[in-house]
Amino acid sequence: MTGPADPTPEAVRAPSIGSPLGDATPTPPAADATVVPPAALPAAPASPFARLRTNPGSVLVTAFDLLTRASADVRRGSFYVGLIALGTIGPVVVLLWGVEVASEVRSADVLGALVSGRVGEWLVVGEWLALGGLIVAFVESRGVAMSLLGARLEGRPFGLRDAVQRSRTVFWRVVAGIAIVNAPVLIAQKLIGDWLAGVFHGASEVTTLTPAILVAIAASPVAYVLCGIVLGDVGPIESVRRSVRLFSARRRSAVVVSLFALAAQYLTLFGALAGLDLIARVFDSLAIGPASGDVAVAIVTVVILAVVFAIGSLLFTVAAIAAAPQVVMFLALTHASPGLARVRGDLAAGEVPAPGRAASRGVRGFRWLTVPMRGAMALGLLVTVVGLVSLNR
């Protein structure tokens, strides 16, 4: 009797274990299988940074275009940093204004006793609070600005919340990167400036600007350190190594990037000083001062708070302007921004998610002002109220 026929076609039947070829026997494709030619396979997506050019002129043009396209993001970021400055620096500024007003109605001896006593203690607390707020605003400005500009250049959906979240994630790494880069720069600039002041028999614009320019050129190899931390998602030491390698790839462009950051900071500083001088002249012409009455004092107080907020906003704007060429060059040379993908947990093609990475998706539980920042602002309000009350006793 003949058994049932084997339904498996001979062409696709697996070889027996005893076959001399074993598993190496090729299995022909089924008759109805569709063979996709290599040309029909989908091509890998082009890098969004492939169009970027790295010569100095093109980098500056692209940077200005990026700033124009990201103007709304920069404006929102400036409001955020301005709020930080207002809540942490504003209290001690208002208290100092209160001391100035009190000096018009109190004798020097009484005022000196107050300032050296309880009011002086609150002033010290306010000064430390203002210093901490200034550091936070300085670091946050760079982290948020680079995140926003990098996302805008890539075309990634990325809002201010995402940028703040990224900045907070790498906050201490950015602090370390700023210290590594700026500490030698400031020391070298101070030494060169003192030497030039001795040569020219006194300090002047030449002895101030010349060291800054020379040191900026010398520091070009570390121009991309903060971008490596924020966008490249590496530590400060590794970011220094990568920045040096990127500098070696395009030396002239790195020098232009470094000098552009210096020029943006100086031009904005001169503009801010001119604005403050204009406000002082207006007050003088209107005879508004600490002895002008309660209404005038209240007006000046509001203006002072507005100026503090504007200085914080300006700090962010300067950071964005200075960072734009750095972001353009970094992404043009690396074609990667893994730091931005970490915020929402986005994965690149073929990337294996790290343990716990899916839990970081989104900005769940996000607070514009963290608990420590809220505590600092509450302390600042206490400094202002108690200090002013002590002045009026």
Low-confidence stretches: 1-26, 347-363
Beta-strand residue fraction: under 5%
Structure class: mainly alpha
- The overall pLDDT, averaged over residues, is 80
Total helices: the number is: 14
User: What share of residues is helical?
Assistant: 55-70%
Radius of gyration: 30 Å
The largest sheet, given as strand count, sense and whether it forms a barrel, is: none
What is the number of strand segments? Answer: 0
Distance between the termini: 119 Å
Order of helices and strands: HHHHHHHHHHHHHH
**What gross morphology would you assign?**
globular
Oligomeric assembly: single chain
What does this structure look like?
With 393 residues, the chain is an all-alpha fold. The chain is built from 14 helices and no strands. Mean pLDDT is 80; it is low at 1-26 and 347-363. Helix 5 (118-154) crosses helix 6, helix 5 (118-154) crosses helix 7 and helix 11 runs antiparallel to helix 12 (294-334). It starts with 55 loop residues before the first helix and ends with a helix.
Describe the structure using short key phrases.
globular, 14 helices, 393 residues, disordered N terminus
How is the secondary structure organized here?
Blueprint: H1 56-69, H2 71-88, H3 90-102, H4 108-116, H5 118-154, H6 160-169, H7 171-199, H8 205-218, H9 225-230, H10 236-249, H11 251-285, H12 294-334, H13 338-344, H14 371-391
Helix pairs in contact: 1-11, 1-12, 2-5, 2-12, 3-5, 3-12, 3-14, 5-6, 5-7, 5-12, 5-14, 6-13, 7-8, 7-10, 8-11, 10-11, 11-12
